[in-house]
Amino acid sequence: MFSRRTLLTGSLALIFTPATGALAQQFAQSQAEWSQNYEAVSRTRVQRTSTPMMSAEALAATEQMIEYYRNIAARGGWQPVQGVQGLRVGSKSPAVVALRQRLIVTGDLDQAAGESPIFDSYVEAAVRRFQARHGISSTGTVTAPTVAAMNVPAEVRIRQLEINVARLRTLVGAGLPNRYAVANIPAALVETVEGGVVHTRHAAGVGKIDRQSPLLNSKVVEVNFNPFWTAPASVVKKDLIPKMQKEPNYLTENRIRIFNSAGQEVQSSQINWFSDEATRYRFRQDPGGDLNSMGFVRINIPNPHGVYMHDTPSKGIFGDDFRFVSSGCIRIQNVRDYIEWLLKDTPGWSREQIDATFKSGERIDARLAQPVPIHWIYMTAWATPDGLVQFRDDIYNKDGLGSAIPVASRTPTEPDEEMFLQN
Fold first, then answer.
1. How far apart are alpha carbons 308 and 135 in whole angstroms?
2. What is the DSSP letter of 240?
């Protein structure tokens, strides 16, 4: 059985950078999802659309894609691929012929590519495209998650599209503002949108299966630079106490202080870590982007769940396909680009001022002049007007399809040793 980190997929790791003025127009023209050019060299990179995931255009495109996939199913769908795991450029196998046919059915490989048993650069480019559409690292090598995604039946993909069309209709039905941000939890992906076009796109770290990020509609109201981090009660009980039982110096090494109800600091040696005594105290981590669980910045979103968005010192997670690692909050890659966009209409917060504040380590709060709408949504399938359709694993089992899509076990596991403190 594959591990959760190996088998579950997140979102693409390629990230847009901000585009303004003339650059925005060039951005919109140049970000076609995938050029149907099968003369591309082996290392072709997949470009992505500037159409927002949550938009009327995505809704219309997803509705059209349902018909496209129904036509595929009416023609017999596709056959499961076998014996293809590990294949890459230069491989020769009869299984490559079946792989070509599978890629042709969904338009990832041109029909003129033929039936050669050689895994050539055309096949590699098609595998990359397929991987990009399913949130799998676009290596061009056939991995276990790639095989699992290829072998989901057409009928199941149709049902996914139908479920998500209903979600999109609800999300865009009342109209959307000119500026908003959206976090798609199954994709572990955040977009900022302005004028109907994606301005920036960020890989994200979202809630674990047993500590899920909630769905919400709110507004970003404030950015806290160089914040303290106070451990939630759930983290104290599930993570801190077990950690201190094994590593008595952990709190000191991570600059986490303990305070009683009167606000007085308490030494860790005064607490019985083999009881629930610690749950009666408050645990606060000193500021410092190199170690603090929120990194350099916290982004405040009023909501009843007590969650927010933030930076992280553990930047390595953003290169993973599996980014379901937090206790419910959302971590943002390239957070400076994100907060620059959030604060663009707030006087005194240029990129230079933001960078200087990061560097100073000073605790400063910046209240947005105009709060920005933010939506945390759950979409496992969507399409864009260029004809590209995206699928993601139903990580929280909200689609109701059960084991129809082969994802890894949803049974909670031991805390991630690197990220267990991250919120």
1. 24
2. I
